[in-house]
Amino acid sequence: MIVLGLESSCDETGVALYDTERGLIAQQLHSQIDLHAAYGGVVPELASRDHVRRMPALIRQTVAEAGVPMSAIDAVAYTAGPGLAGALLIAAGTGQALAAALGIPALPIHHLEGHLLSPLLADEPPSFPFVALLVSGGHTQLMRVDGVGRYALLGESVDDAAGEAFDKTAKLMGLDYPGGPVLARLADQGTAGRVKLPRPMLHSGDLNFSFSGLKTAVMTQLRNGSHAPADMAAEFQAAVVDVLVAKSLAALKQTGLSRLVVAGGVGANQSLRERLNEAVTRRRQRVYYPEPALCTDNGAMIAFAGALRLAEGQRGSETHVVSVRPRW
Ligand code: KG4
Ligand code: ZN
After folding, report:
1. CA–CA separation, 33 vs 177, rounded Å?
2. Taking Cα atoms as reference points, which of 113, 59, 51 lies closest to residue 81?
3. Among candidates 137, 115, 120, 147, which has minimal Cα distance to 288?
4. Which member of 78, 146, 161, 164 has the lowest number of beta carbons within 10 Å of its beta carbon?
5. The Gcp-like domain covers which part of the protein (predicted)?
6. Of the candidates 247, 246, 303, the residue with the CA atom closest to the CA atom of residue 59
7. Which of 196, 200, 132, 195 lies closest to 162, judged by CA?
């Protein structure tokens, strides 16, 4: 079975073909970073317009790369939420239209489920059950995952997501857009501990997070002190990583599971990976990541989630109504 995956929830247009026999057979990705850079953040209207412009060509390129005719596609999976409403509508509209034209099912996929299952695309995938740490620009969650569609929320951020905190702090520090990766690179040149920042909710006794206070703490330090930007970045990254690592270990302990899966854009952070690798190895547990290219938004994870959903018996709607769920 071949599934076409479409992603347009934010500032990435992603298209991919997943073959249940051969794996990922083709994928194309267009990033809108340059388009939004001048504004210091994603401009929703510009994002939607660019998705409309790019999506048809990306689909043609993906199908050509795979060397299969359109008629070989068995189903379409598209991100239906959460995300920017106008942006989501592009993958949803395109997906439903293609499905109607080809007479195949179209499956709405939850964007976070795409991230969550993407480590299963790796060469050595984890088996169920596992704990998942989902760290993206919009969400920070710890979940217990028992199988496809069998997710239990263990804890989440009560305010900003980890990626959002990286982005907002980078902006405060006057760093280039997109802030998260730029701040992380600067952190590698500094020393944590020279500036002191809090570790929010480290000892809260639950698996929830809070990151908005960190950004405020950075703002106060910037006003009052004269710290090297690299040291500030290093301390900020260390504060976020300390909390993410401690709560992930606590989630493993609480559930009694030994496998941790990390997904979402912040999962690309090197310091987080090093600290997690070290901590779980010491405990004879294991941590799994998606390939670096699949950490941030892409069509491959949506095609893959669609294939797994179909294998579980989910059927797409026959009516091809185009609807999205921005706050899903
Ligand atoms: O999963 P993703 O691509 O999009 C969402 O679904 O939100 O995640 C994007 C987020 C952004 O906030 C970005 O700053 C953050 O991931 N990010 C990073 C790194 N690379 C991306 N944060 C910290 N360190 C990185 N290396
Ligand atoms: Zn995402």
Report:
1. 8
2. 113
3. 120
4. 146
5. 24-304
6. 303
7. 200
Residue nearest to atom 21 of ligand 1 (CA): 265
Query: Do residues 33 and 178 touch, judged by C-beta distance below 8 A?
Result: yes
Atom 14 of ligand 1 has which residue's CA nearest to it?
A: 180
CA 146 to each of CA 140, 259, 311: distance values in angstroms, whole numbers, following the listed order: 19, 12, 16
Is there a binding annotation on residue 135? yes
Is any ligand 1 atom within 6 A of the Cβ of residue 19?
no
Which residue, chain included where needed, has tokens 């210091």? 40
Residue 103, annotated as binding a ligand: no
pLDDT digits (tens, 9 = 90+) for 212-261: 999 999 999 999 888 899 999 999 999 999 999 999 999 999 999 999 99
Closest CA to 215 of 265, 168, 272: 168
Residues measured by CB to lie within 5 Å of ligand 2, the ion: 136, 297
The verdict on pTM exceeding 0.90 is yes
Quick one: what percent of the chain has pLDDT higher than 90? Answer: 93
Query: Of all protein residues, whose CA lies closest to atom 7 belonging to ligand 1?
Result: 137
Q: Answer yes or no: is 167 a known binding residue.
A: yes
* 216 Cβ neighbours under 8 A, 6+ residues apart: none
**Which token pair is 217?**
């703490």
Residue 189 has pLDDT above 90, yes or no: yes
| Per-residue confidence (pLDDT) for residue 122, from 0 to 100 | 92
Q: Is 297 in the pocket of ligand 1 (CB under 6 A)?
A: yes
